[in-house]
Design goal:
Elements (H helix, E strand, L loop, with lengths): L8 E2 L8 H35 L4 H21 L6 E5 L6 H8 L12 H8 L5 E9 L3 E8 L2 E7 L2 E6 L4 E3 L11 E3 L3 H12 L3 H4 L2 E7 L3 E6 L4 E3 L5 H15 L6 E5 L7 E4 L12
Parallel strand pairs: 1-2, 2-4, 5-8, 8-9, 11-12
Antiparallel strand pairs: 3-4, 5-6, 6-7, 9-10, 10-11, 12-13
Helix pairs in contact: 1-2
Length: 287
């Protein structure tokens, strides 16, 4: 693994440390051993005293425990166990500023005082982060491995646009301008049904390229909008057969090159084509 960004918050992983680090590590180990012996003895004494005092005051025991923990942390700081570097692996969309805010550590912070579980919980609140691993790597490195989401489509929801992944999870609008090539999906619960739609569209790649948007209608079927404004109404049952039929007609008859604005495939074995200037049948009902 290699360091991708030569800053204290790296976008890559660890690399071989200079030899001076080895010497430093042996120094803090020698310094830490007697200090930990002393701290352990202190903890035993205070633990025994606290056990006797429990009958008198639980709050006092709590204060003694906190004091012992603080003394131990102070000892590790003097031994050199402090944050010296934060290394990150797997970062593509998540910004450096977001990571710094969510990790919430600074150089010089006691490395043993870092709650790695809490850091992970904060990281997975970020839209792009599906999962994260947070580790301490002694003596002074915090290592973070990110698993970022992959944008599947752009979801138009209540007048706004957000990216969603293959599980239908709302990623947010960060980086939206870099994903304008994705299909736009519209409608309540559309993200949950979009993976099956995209798999179906992929069976006819030339025609799929022309699809700009898909509207989930009535919670049961799709309407497609092509790049030239033609609407394609797919049936609720077996939309794959209808899509294959449309792709065949386009390949053999150049159907979509004619002066039409809509193709209705909702009725099995029938093709209803609406030409430009014609009124919509049945009052324009699209469900």
């Amino acid at each position: 693994m290699r360091r991708l960004i030569p800053t204290w918050l790296s976008g890559g992983a660890t690399k071989a440390k200079p030899k001076r680090r080895t010497k430093r590590r042996s120094v803090w180990v020698r310094r830490l051993r007697p200090a930990l012996y002393l701290t352990a003895s202190f903890a035993i004494i205070t633990g025994a005293a606290g056990a006797g005092y429990w009958a008198w005051s639980t709050s006092a025991l709590t204060r003694l425990t906190i004091a012992a923990e603080t003394a131990l942390i102070d000892t590790t700081v003097r031994a050199g166990l402090v944050v010296d570097d934060v290394l990150v692996e797997g970062r593509v969309e998540t910004t450096r500023e977001q990571l710094l805010r969510m990790i919430g550590v600074r150089r010089g912070d006691p490395i043993l005082a870092i709650d790695t579980h809490a850091v992970r919980e904060r990281l997975i609140q970020l839209g792009w982060v599906a999962d994260a691993t947070v580790q301490r790597r002694f003596p002074g490195t915090v290592f973070v491995r990110l698993q970022e989401r992959k944008a599947m489509a752009i979801w138009q929801r209540k007048g706004t646009f957000v990216l969603v992944d293959g599980d239908g999870v709302d990623i947010g609008n960060q980086g939206l301008t870099r994903y304008t090539h994705l299909k736009v999906i519209v409608g309540n619960d559309a993200p949950r049904h979009a993976p099956a739609l995209l798999d179906m569209l992929a069976t006819a790649p030339p025609l799929m390229k022309r699809v700009q948007a898909a509207v989930w209608v009535g919670g049961r079927r799709w309407n497609l909008r092509l790049d030239d404004g033609i609407d394609i109404r797919l049936p609720e049952e077996n939309p794959q057969a209808a899509w294959t039929r449309l792709a065949t007609l386009e390949r053999d008859k150049r159907l979509l090159s004619q002066d039409i604005i809509a193709v209705d495939l909702r009725i099995r074995d029938r093709l209803i084509v609406r030409r430009r200037g014609e009124s919509a049948p049945n009052g324009g009902n699209s469900t």
